[in-house]
Amino acid sequence: MFGLLPLSTMMGFKMMVSASPSPRSPEITEKTKKYDRQLRLWGDHGQSRLEKSHVCLINSSATGTEILKSLVLPGVGSFTIVDGYKVTQEDIGINFFLDQDSLGKSRAEYTTKLLLELNTDVNGEAIEEHPEMLLKQNPNFFNHFSVVIGCQLDEKTLVTISQVLWESQVPFVYVNCIGFLGWVRVQVNELAIIESHPDSTIQDLRLDVPFPELIAYMDALTINSREVAQKTPWLVLLFKAIQKFSTPSTGDSMDTTGCHPCHMKSQEKQEFKKYLKQYLCEVGLKDTDEEFDEVVKAANSALSPSMINSNVQALLDDPKSTKPEKTKFWVMCGALREFVANNGQLPVRGVLPDMMADSDRYINLQSVYREKASKDAEDILGRSQQLLKQAGLQGLTIVEEDVKLFCKECQNLRLIRGYPMYEEINSVPVEILQELAQNTEDSDQEMMYYLLLRGLLRFQGDYHTYPGLLDRDVEPDINRFKGTFTKLLNDWNATISAKEDCIHELCRYGACELPSVAAFIGGCAAQEVIKIITKQYVPLDNTFIYNAMQSTSSSFKMTRANS
Amino acid sequence: MASDVKGLLPADLGQLVNECNVLVVGAGGIGCELLKNLVVFGLKNVHIIDLDTIEVSNLNRQFLFRREHVGRPKSIVAKESALLFNPKVCITAYHDSITESKFDVNFYKQFNVVLNALDNRTARSHVNRMCLAAKIPLVESGTAGYKGNVSFHMQGISECYDCTTKPHQKTFPGCTIRNTPSEPIHCIVWAKHLFNQLFGISDPDEDVSPDSSDPEAVGDAGKIALEESNDTNGQVKEKVSTRQWAQSHEYDAQKLFQKLFHDDIKYLLSMENLWQKRKPPTPLDWNDLPDVIAGSSSIDQQTVTALKDQRVWSMQECSQVFKQSINQLKEKLENEKDLIWDKDDDPAMDFVTACSNVRAHVFGIQQKSRFDTKSMAGNIIPAIASTNAIVAGLIVTMACKVLKKDYYKCNTIFVMPRPTAVKKDLFPLDQIVGPNPKCYVCAEKPEIIVKMDLEKMTVRILGDKVLKTELCMIAPDVEIDDGQGTILISSEEGETDDIADKLLKNFIKDGTRLKCDDFLQNYQINITVAAMVDEEDEKDREKSGILFEIIGDRTQLNAKEQVAEGKKTDDQEQPSTSKKANPVHDDEDDLMIIEPTTVSEVQVAGTKRRLDETEEDTPSKKRKVESETSEVIDID
Ligand SMILES: [Zn+2]
Fold it and tell me: Which of A93, A363, A554 sits opposite B4 (nearest CB)?
């Protein structure tokens, strides 16, 4: 059963092996092993961005510590904690990382020390100072961070930090946990995402707008027997069926009136499918063949029009594409814009779905798409470099790898344009108020909580304390808070009012963070920071409110009101 | 801790937190976060159990563990680390399997709530049954990448964990694996089976040599072999094992390669019926290996990524890695009786990557990089610290409601990577659903029908594949309902060994009722046997190799779930059920992600059992379904 090889061959083989370099074993480093489970989420390029990043946390509250924990573990490059407070008994009570020894010590230093123990690859530093003081000493202090996270900020500091970061274009994640409520706000000036990881990517097959190389390849193939048809990828069979279907000279074809099957409505598509089956029988396939089913099934998703979605179109129409600013993303968008103007289509993605076929035939078909994708990418690269030259954007280099990824993902490009929080805090939340005025139902509780949280910020600004801080009597604070909140609503010309029980609950917790809410919100904020740093997945845009009492949450976008 | 901070918790909750006793099952990704939350919340009594030891790949998220802890028991180290932060808590740690008989119903009764932080279906199902039996509320959870979920289960109030069919551990018909692979996963499963055959504990179901009894091939040379393999007693005849063969050739890589990828393939080619409608495989010769890579889109990735193991290897490279890994494994075998396949063991992973790729090349199937092969072979689910933190926070929030007996506020909650289309919600809630009256676990008298091929199935397969794998029983007893109480399978070790390898036709027939009982789980189910008729099989050649099929109420369950899911998803085109799918595992619509770290091994009653071959997720097709419907997630 097992063939013996001639001795000479064996000898020859042995010599061959000893002569060749030692077997190439995949290099798996300790680090790759440690990060294996997350590399599968954001890849090594995402990991490399994470490792190069430097995040700053203002105030290492329980929530702040939770956020940094979830950034230190996956290997953020380095972190800085800016925190002027000393550890209090309450801190120890709600922050897992603080023990009794830490009482009265610098919160920044103690937290930094404990966080660094979680991952030896990470660097960290503690600055025992309040952020406003730091800014006084050095107005550019925050400019070099990849992301700044702010916890436990009073209204005035929040406004200052938000403005400083907006002006220096540093992404800012504001986090506020009070009792059973959580508030996360992402402030980015502009965030371009190439790898948005959509739930599903539309196949890019160009059946409705075949490129010349594809037509030439298809034309050269003849399918003249069942055997050949079985070995032929479904894409080829489908292409040929469409071609025949759309050619008026074919006597048995429908009156297509120029409508390509990719652009048909579902009922017309059924007609085409009937034709497709007929065609498959003509080339020799039997309707019991696996391949027959495969073509018919694949046709469902393959027959979609090649088009440019609204997200991408908006990018192409953006003034920054016409006159690119000095970022790789916008220069490549500019190149893409020219490309689309010339070709009417986006670059070919060059990725085919798996298909049952003879592997040679599959490889050949694949290389037709892949070569076209390379050619298109080369075109984009050339245009990008041309644009760089024209605009005199020296110092910026765009390489093949950038363009290849950009082209592969060009269907999925996303752009987030932010709204600065300092403006939000200084303006009337018109849309929220309108929404609440229209819906008196409970469904918009989170929006009401948003207003209450704004009320808390105002209260804190006015009284330099939070209502219901722990050992005080709650009742007078509730009344004071109601006063502040009513005044705020009046300032906003709002016609709504908050429920008594909401206000009571809010005041009962004082400024305290609940550990489970801190854990939850900490995880949420960390995920947003990771999305911003890795530039993968689409971050929160831009507000998230969580209510642990009902386990409900809501995310919405605060925008500049049209006035 | 929070309960010490005056006024932080409402008085009633504060007292409940102080007095309660909680069981955390699992000290992995979620377990570490959960233990932290419970300790800081101020719970005084926490029990934590985990069977596993710490691995390097845990360190990116399981923050109670450090580099120096690698190799030590998770539960013990988690306890030690947590106590450093809060010495006042009483933590009881068990380095043990939750399915051990000492963790009986009485053990569960001491807890106010059980919090699952598990990573596999068998253990989840088991804890579910124990909680049902002990009438203790259960909070279940899982994460996968940016996704996660938390749900509540309580007898009589909400559905139990088994009320909706859970995605099954994917298995493939034996003939597909042995004779006619058509997808990369088939080659990977084959390679893992081969590993076990060569170096580990071989399982007769994991045979890797050509299967001449393939009904499709009947009429060929195979027929004779089929007749030879069963003797008159209906007992499967011993044959020379692959391992014995390899040993007799001193694990010579070249000879093994030649047998596996040349001679065996030639033999397969001799079964001409198989290749009438398929592209026949091409045998490979060690001395004449092509330097091309079977068609795949992964070449694209190669340019984008830098990781060395993300590149697809040529046949030359595969053969070298094949040789190198065999030599390493052979060396290991000198000190160990049997090797257990582990995705994090480099030689084992290298071996599977090389073998599956060579086989893929032989059959003209798309090749996969080592990185991708590892994902598929080890059923690796991405896992990050932040999602675990989110889920653990949600578990504690739900546990508080459970302690306050606010059961009807314990809606299932999902964690999504992006807002859902409908409510723009990152954390959508589900209605609380009452128990499914036809549930095969929590119904009053669970009943199912199992179609079996009595001619081919042995008693052992009934026990291992139907009762343990499918129905998640741990130590089943099976009695034939024939009025005489004939014992078919006993949970007592050795008691029914003599008949374990006999064919079922010797004991039961169409219509026989089997009373199955798991004493520990306090779980009884009646199975009605429906004999599989041969002609039926031949008509549907895709069923070849399928030994049994669970029908009846389980099928109805499936139908019900599909309707429910159709509503939830925004009318995406449902993937049509693949013809290749095994009807037993009709899970195209199920989205299950089983966490990576420990799925490969579950310790049952002291013996390491290998469940891994069944944990895989099919590649492209299924992944799409997951992301589209994204409702049921299960994991970490
Ligand atoms: Zn149930």
Answer: A93
Rounded to the nearest whole angstrom, what is the distance from the C-alpha of residue A106 to the centroid of ligand 1?
A: 52
Cα separations in angstroms, B462 against A463, B213, B470: 72, 20, 10
> Is B145 in contact with A69 (Cβ distance < 8 A)?
no
Phi, psi of B260 (to 5 degrees): -75, -40
In this complex, is the C-beta atom of B240 within 8 Å of any C-beta atom belonging to chain A? no
In this predicted complex, what is the ipTM?
0.89
Q: Which of B49-53, B163-167, B609-613 has the lowest mean pLDDT?
A: B609-613
Rounded distance between C-alpha atoms, residue B503 and residue A400, angstroms: 62
Query: Is B175 labeled as catalytic in the residue annotation?
Result: yes
| Contacts (Cβ under 8 Å, ≥6 apart) of B586 | B558, B577
Cα–Cα dist B544/B442, whole Å: 33
Report the pLDDT averaged over residues B460-487. Answer: 91
Query: Token pair of B402, please?
Result: 């459970």
B395-409 tens-digit pLDDT:
999 999 999 999 999
Report CB contact under 8 Å: A33, B56.
yes
Total domain count, chain A: 2
Q: Is B531 marked within a binding site?
A: no
At residue B298, does pLDDT exceed 90? no
Residues of B (18-77) whose Cβ lies below 8 Å from A = 33, 36-37, 39-41, 56-57, 59-61, 63, 66-67
A90 touches chain B (CB under 8 A): yes
What's chain A's average pLDDT? 87
Question: What is the residue range of A289's domain?
Answer: 212-302
Cα of B157 from ligand 1 centre, angstroms = 11
CA angle A423, A425, A429 (to 5 degrees): 95
Closest of B538, B530, B368, B524 to residue B452, by C-alpha: B530
Residue in B32, B175, B318, B400 annotated catalytic: B175
Position A469 in a domain: yes
Distances (CA, A) of B49 to B80, B91, B98: 13, 10, 7
Please give the pLDDT value at position B36.
Answer: 94
| Ligand 1 is an ion; residues with CB less than 5 A from it | B 160, 162-163, 439, 441-442
Task: Give A266 or A379, the one with higher predicted confidence.
Answer: A379
Domain boundary residue, one of A243, A272, A302:
A302
Least confident span in A122-131, B350-359, B380-389, B601-610: B601-610
Q: Return d(Cα A260, Cα A243) in angstroms, integer.
A: 9
CB contact under 8 A, B382 and A37: yes
Q: Does residue B378 have a known ligand-binding role?
A: no
d(CA A206, CA A212): 11
Q: How far is the CA of B388 from the centre of ligand 1 (A)?
A: 26
- The predicted model gives B48-63 an average pLDDT of 94
Say how many Å lie between the CA of residue B523 and the centre of ligand 1.
12
Q: Is residue A324 part of a domain?
A: no
**Tokens 């259960």 appear where?**
B138
Residue A524 inside a domain? The answer is: no
Looking at residue A290, its pLDDT comes to 79
All domains in chain B, ordered by first residue: 2-169+384-428 (3.40.50.720), 174-376 (1.10.10.520), 447-558+579-635 (3.10.290.20)
Q: b vs e for B89-123, b when ≥16 Cβ sit within 10 Å of the residue's Cβ? A: bebebbbebbbbeebbbebbeebbbbbbbbbbbbb
Q: A236 lies in a domain? A: yes
Per the DSSP assignment, residues forming a β-bridge with B90 are B45
* pLDDT at residue B417, as a whole number: 81
- Helical segments of B90-162, H only: 105-109, 121-134
Question: pLDDT tens for residues B559-589?
Answer: 333 333 333 222 222 222 222 222 222 222 2
* Residue A130, phi then psi, degrees to nearest 5: -80, 145
Residue finishing a domain among A459, A484, A508: A508
Instruction: Kindly indicate the confidence band of residue B625, based on its pLDDT and cuts at 50, 70 and 90.
Output: very low
